[in-house]
């Protein structure tokens, strides 16, 4: 948000998604060639498929403050990840995903198994998205 000179979250979820899309478009115009996810360093690579309504409800609940539960946070992350993947296809930005051992002792190889991404990789909504598995 700082990169885009935004001081607070947009009031609506629709505007938040618009902000994400505009940021990706602008980065692409400035020479960005891909999206990079280091997800395996921070959480399991398994992604559920929450609805937009679920993510929108969570956004509305916490946009002005508060701390979501771990389950709520994961639901929101999963929706945003899938939104970004779809935008990657629309904008012809390959999606790079780190999927193997990294630095530090917090990395859990079983949670980062590339097979955990199968539900995303086989999803026809992302047929136009190019996926690049790094360290797979």
**Apparent shape:** globular
Q: Which radius of gyration do the C-alpha atoms yield? A: 15 Å
Number of domains: 1
Count all strands and give the number: 3
What is the structural class? mainly alpha
Task: Label this structure with key terms.
single chain, 136 residues, mainly alpha, 3-stranded parallel β-sheet, globular
Overview of the molecule:
With about 140 residues, the protein is mainly alpha-helical. It has one domain (about 15-135). About 40% of the residues lie in helices and about 10% in strands. The chain is built from 4 helices and 3 strands, in the order H-E-H-H-E-H-E. A 3-stranded parallel beta sheet has the order 1-2-3. Helix 1 (about 15-30) packs across helix 3 (about 70-90) and helix 2 packs across helix 3. The chain is globular. The model has no long low-confidence stretch (mean pLDDT about 90).
List the helices and strands and how they pair.
Blueprint: H1 13-29, E1 35-37, H2 52-62, H3 70-91, E2 95-98, H4 118-121, E3 131-134
Parallel strand pairs: 1-2, 2-3
Helix pairs in contact: 1-3, 2-3
Quick take:
The protein has 136 residues and is mainly alpha-helical. The chain has helices spanning 13-29, 52-62, 70-91, 118-121, and strands spanning 35-37, 95-98, 131-134.
